[in-house]
Design a protein that fits this description.
With 241 residues, the chain is an alpha+beta fold. It is built from 7 helices and 7 strands; from the N terminus they run H-E-H-H-H-E-E-E-H-E-H-E-E-H. The N and C termini lie far apart (84 Å).
Length: 241
């Protein structure tokens, strides 16, 4: 049994590492920009939002994300087939509660001695070059470790240099075969630090999301009041002699 002092020290260490805005990543994790980015787990209730995010991708981004020129119908089938009980879907929201980045960690159904999980990610154009892809990959690595996954891999087109760069910086082995590429990264077993770090990130993301929801409701209410006032002023002007 872990003694309370060791548990408290591990919790403090995990919190310091998670909060530190450093460009130096932990071993086996991609380098990250100095900013806290709340990454939230998405459940079945967010299926339509995930679909809206993917449908908003232009043809080139769809091609890079799925490896083929996915149509709206194919994207709908992909989203309808997401297994939220088995896989993990992560998202990053902006202040307007738009999903600007979504990652999918697909875990195989059949458990084995060396379980592997596949990672895929998409980021809208206006939110590029902010390190979101690398942060989502780091988050997926942490979840995979804690879920007992021993290896994470990425299937991508060779021209998807951004995705392959994220994998290389994380220490993955990249193999190219013509127009296609695969990246493999072995993961260490879960430990107390990885579990506490995941818990901290989940709590931070939930608090951030609730604050954004409240702020959006507030500004929507302010906007409604302003519209009513504008309507009243216009009505008075029309009725004035």
């Amino acid at each position: 049994m872990t003694d309370p002092v060791s548990l408290l020290q591990a919790s403090l260490d995990a919190g310091r590492r998670w909060m530190r805005p450093s460009r130096t990543a932990d071993a086996g994790a991609p380098a990250l920009p100095p900013a806290l980015v709340p990454i939230r787990s998405l459940g079945p209730a967010y299926r339509e939002r995930i679909a809206a995010h993917l449908l908003a991708l232009d043809p080139e981004d769809r091609y890079l994300r799925f490896g083929y020129a996915a149509s709206d119908e194919q994207i709908r089938r992909y989203v309808d087939g997401l297994d939220f009980a088995r896989d993990e879907i992560f998202g990053i929201y902006n202040r307007r509660l738009d999903l600007i980045a979504v990652a999918h960690l697909a875990i195989p159904r059949e458990p084995g001695e060396r379980r592997r999980a596949e990672f895929g990610v998409s980021v809208v154009k206006r939110a590029r070059a902010r390190g979101y892809g690398a942060r989502l990959f780091r988050r997926a690595m942490m979840h995979a470790r804690n879920a007992g996954v021993a290896e994470i891999f990425i299937y991508a087109l060779s021209q998807n240099t951004a995705m392959l760069s994220i994998a290389r910086k994380a220490g993955a082995t990249v193999q190219r075969d013509g127009s296609e590429a695969e990246a493999y990264l072995s993961l260490p077993p879960a430990d107390l630090d990885s579990r506490l770090s995941q818990l901290l990130e989940q709590q931070f993301a939930e608090v951030d999301y609730r604050l954004k929801v409240q702020a959006k409701h507030f500004w929507d209410a302010i906007g409604s009041i302003q519209e009513i006032r504008q309507g009243v002023r216009e009505a008075r002007q029309r009725s004035a002699p």
